[in-house]
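=== RUN LOG ===
request id: a7f3
mode: sequence -> structure
chains: 1
length: 77
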Amino acid sequence: MNILSSILKKVINEEVIFTVKCYICKNNAGCASCEYEKQCDRKKTSNFCLCLECESKQETIDVYSMMFAKELLDKEK
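=== RESULT ===
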């Protein structure tokens, strides 16, 4: 990612900002408003982030857990 970021920055002459999709709904996770934004390196971050909308729903932990378990089981196949 670092190489790609450097190449893009040189080509377009602008800083490249990586965003992350919400693990559940696949919309933009809203990195700019995330409480972890200052510590997060989006080039290395996990693909298991949540957007504020999904994070605020009561059923999120259940949905998240089921999706994560399914992904682990699919990798074992």
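=== NOTES ===
Residues 15 and 57 are 34 Å apart (CA to CA).
The radius of gyration is 15 Å.
=== END ===
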